[in-house]
Design a protein that fits this description.
By secondary structure, the protein is of the alpha+beta class. 37% of the residues lie in helices and 22% in strands. The protein has two domains: 9-25 and 207-255; 31-202, 3-Layer(aba) Sandwich (Protein Transport Mog1p, Chain A). The protein is built from seven helices and ten strands.
Length: 256
């Protein structure tokens, strides 16, 4: 009986994890990173892309192993495939909060990579005057931005707006891509997405009510969450589950 009960509990837990994962992805217009402890909103006509779709794209473009460690990818729903128009690849460096000396050092390194000295301006002063390959840094808002030109195999010429958002957990990196001809029209949309970045009220942003597990008899109280676990703890398990599955997918892709 004990073995049967454990198997049932395992299957029910996996089902619950999948249900919660889908619920988190389905929160229209808002992305919540449990791993990074931040949130931001994206346009209603955008969507978060399935990880397997993105992994296949990276594999076909011979991306580095590090490229598979992205946090999430977004694009307009009208894109087919997602990388044919505007899209965003979000990554995360969980290195903790950087002080002013460390951020200046990082910005100077970026300046050397792109061949131009860093310009320090309030965001409102440079938002309309970014020059290609010149890093700009807004100290007050802890945001760095760089525009550069990129070329992808079998794709037309693109522009990339790279945004570093420094915060207490590390650096959230927004890699926005757009066809060269569309970039100036798309840039305000990109800027607005970064402007909504927040580390407040993360738990409240989770779509808890979307999780529904049918025909599972537990002894939990209504306010304890699923299987007697608080929602925050259960959500943390989802992160572990997603990370494991993504690593397995990336390993299978690289072994083909």
């Amino acid at each position: 009986m004990g073995s049967i009960k454990m198997k049932f509990l395992y299957k029910a837990t996996v089902s619950a994890l999948i249900a919660l994962t889908l619920a988190l992805s389905a929160a229209a217009g808002e992305y919540v990173s449990l791993n990074g402890k931040f949130r931001f909103t994206y346009p209603d006509d955008w969507e978060q892309m399935d990880y397997s779709t993105v992994d296949a794209f990276l594999y076909n473009n011979r991306a580095s192993d590090e490229s598979f460690n992205y946090e999430a990818v977004f694009s307009p729903k009208s894109n087919s495939p997602f990388h044919k128009g505007d899209y965003l690849i979000l990554t995360l460096d969980k290195i903790g909060a950087l002080d002013s000396t460390q951020t200046d050092s990082l910005m100077n390194s970026l300046g050397r990579v792109f061949g131009n000295r860093v310009k320090y301006y309030p965001q409102s002063s440079y938002i309309a005057n970014l020059k290609s390959n010149t890093p700009y840094f807004d100290r007050a808002n802890r945001v760095a931005k760089i525009i550069n030109d990129v070329s992808e195999s079998n794709d037309p010429f693109k522009k990339n707006l790279l945004v570093y958002k420094f915060y207490d957990e590390g650096i959230a990196k927004f890699f926005f891509y757009s066809p060269d001809s569309l970039f100036e029209n798309s840039r305000p949309v990109f800027e607005q997405m970064v402007a909504t970045f927040s580390t407040e009220n993360i738990d409240e942003a989770l779509p808890k009510e979307e999780v529904k597990i049918a025909d599972i008899d537990t002894d939990k109280d209504e306010d304890k969450g699923i299987f007697g676990l608080p929602i925050a703890v259960f959500a943390a398990l989802v992160v572990v589950f997603i990370v494991i599955m993504r690593k397995k997918r990336a390993a299978r892709a690289r072994s083909k």
